Amino acid sequence: MSQLTWEHYTQLEIALGMGSIIAVLAGIALWMLYRRKIRHLHDMFVHVPCALLMVSRKNHQILFANALAQHALQLQTHGRLVQFSPWVSASQREYFSELIDKSYQEHSRQFIDWPVGEDHSVQIEFQVKDTVFQGQTAWMVQMLIHHECAEATEDHHSIRTDDLMQQLWDASPDAIAVIQDDGYCRSCNLSFAHLLGQDEMAQVTGQPLTWPVQEAPFFQQMFALTEQDVEAEQPIRYIDQLAREPRQWFDVLKSVYRSPATNQVFALLIIRDITAWYSGEPSVQLVNAHHIHSFEQLTGIISRKRFDETLETLWHIHIREKQPLAVILCDVDCFESYNQHYGDEQGDETLCTVALALQRVMSRSSDCIARYDGDRFAFILPNTHIDGACWVAEKIHSEFKQIQLPHPVSDVSNHVTVSMGIVSLVPKTDELSEQFVAYAEQALHQAKMQGRNRTCIYYESLGRR
């Protein structure tokens, strides 16, 4: 066995020294990693997109509140101490603590009206989960703010954003609501309450959604929120009928989304009454909507915007019913020459006369006529095969022969004539309503190329049923 020398002791000391240094460095690295994770956790809590509280299970003392929670609850911070504002009474704090206990024990969401300042309040929905924070057992309170005050304007007048939104909703003729995946209605307008058979919004908002047994198929489809709905890239739209007397038809638009903060699923519902398109008698809401924004100023018939909206609605109805929908595009022949000869003022008067003539031809109140663009007019004929659309076009030609509006500079006749393109098809789910107009435009172009003052049919209309 060899004898240890002084050199051996020196090497051992160096090895122990290096080991100590490595241990210290490793400890420093672990400490820095721990601090980094702590900072990351803190940042995550601070910037999480919902109001978040950490509350001690021992004495209900607030351990942490992110910025949204501080704003919503009007909390005051003094160093690390987080306190309620002076206008939050002791009874209100006690009630909040009771609801926290209840939410944790029952695994349920709770609601509370919370004072903001001396005159206003917000409604808060929250749920409690068990966690550990700063080395002690705690409750994590995740909160959603349902109604929040807007910031004061420069002239110190403040408004309630929820009141403003409610006014906008109530001004709409459509039924509108936001529903939750637990079967509750978060908010709605009066039209939606009436749809559910209630007289007041308070009977629906914040309450479980209920409906008569005989109407279950209609409402169950509307209120169902599936994972497939959440993943859908576009809002879900369909036509359905409500089993009431008299029968009612609705165009339903459902936009489903998942909250990134709570993972809860919500849906915005917009339900439009389209019974008028089946009965042929416009509802009061539909008439009011027309008068507000839908009429073209010069001729008094509906605008292109309203035409596009109507076509989109009827498109979905006819897909569901598997019935043919007809569109006619109608151009006044050589109207540019007419304007150059008589002037724009006389041209406008003639367009008004043309619009009246076209309206006289329409025999069904469910048919739609619009000024589409310049001297172009457009028709929508619901539930109309190609033979019926051609019959309407023939009546239009006969009407202009009868009224004999002078047109001395026309290349076609000495009176005003029109060219038309027709399409009549059963819409398909993989087609768009805009394609229908494009088909009619193709037929109209063909009519002009063949000499004007005639009607041409989009070729598929003769073969596709």
Molecular structure report:
The protein is of the alpha+beta class and 465 residues long. The protein folds into three domains: 46-146, 2-Layer Sandwich (Beta-Lactamase); 161-273, Beta-Lactamase, CATH 3.30.450.20; 279-462, Alpha-Beta Plaits (2-Layer Sandwich), CATH 3.30.70. Helices cover 41% and strands 25% of the residues. The chain has 14 helices and 17 strands. Strands 2-1-7-6-5 form a five-stranded antiparallel β-sheet. A five-stranded antiparallel β-sheet has the order 9-8-12-11-10. The protein has a five-stranded mixed β-sheet with strand order 14-15-13-16-17, with helices on both faces. A hairpin with a 2-residue loop joins strand 3 (76-78) and strand 4. Helix 11 (335-342) packs across helix 12 and helix 12 (344-361) packs across helix 13. The radius of gyration is 35 Å and the shape is elongated. Mean pLDDT is 77; it is low at 37-49, 147-161 and 280-293. One of its GO terms (cellular component) is plasma membrane. InterPro entries: Diguanylate_Cyclase (IPR050469), GGDEF_dom (IPR000160), Nucleotide_cyclase (IPR029787), PAS (IPR000014), PAS-like_dom_sf (IPR035965), PAS_4 (IPR013656), Rev_trsase/Diguanyl_cyclase (IPR043128). It comes from Vibrio spartinae. The chain crosses the membrane at residues 14-34. This is diguanylate cyclase.
